[in-house]
Amino acid sequence: MYAQVIQGGSKPEARDEMNRALSEAMIPALQAQPGFRGTLNLEDPVTGHGMMINLWETEDQARRPPTGEAVNEALTRIL
Questions:
Q1: Distance CA 2, CA 76 (A)
Q2: Residues whose CB is less than 8 angstroms from the CB of residue 25 and which lie 6 or more positions away in sequence, other chains included
Q3: Residue 27's closest CA among 78, 64, 79?
Q4: CB-based contacts of 11: which residues, under 8 Å, 6+ apart?
Q5: pTM of the predicted structure, to 2 decimals
Q6: 70, 23 in Cβ contact below 8 A?
Q7: Going by C-beta distance under 8 Å and a sequence separation of 6 or more, which residues neighbour residue 17?
Q8: Which of 2, 26, 41, 69 is most open to solvent, judged by the fewest CB atoms within 10 Å of its CB?
Q9: pLDDT, tens digit (0-9, with 9 covering 90-100), for 25-76
């Protein structure tokens, strides 16, 4: 198993909406990707900084950015 680490964040007051977008859009989009095995979303509620650790079956899957319409739609909600 291989990990892909994505760092980002939002203003602390926008964190709930960010988490909702991750739960409702990004995680389901990732689950549809070949080789996806799970995710861990970490956040600092004071600063709004976040880190998402995605687990993949192969190194190649972990190195590539997730793609597809569902991922693009999820990113639109997050960004």
A1: 26
A2: 70, 73, 74, 77, 78
A3: 78
A4: 48
A5: 0.83
A6: no
A7: 10
A8: 69
A9: 889 999 999 999 999 999 998 898 889 999 999 999 999 988 888 888 888 8
Report the alpha-carbon distance of residue 35 to residue 16 in Å, rounded. 28
- How far apart CA 60 and CA 48 sit, in angstroms, is 30
User: Is the separation of the CB atoms in 43 and 15 below 8 Å?
Assistant: yes
- Cα-based angle 63, 2, 59 (whole degrees, multiple of 5): 45
DSSP 13-53: GGHHHHHHHIIIIIHHHHHTSTTEEEEEEEE-TTT-EEEEE
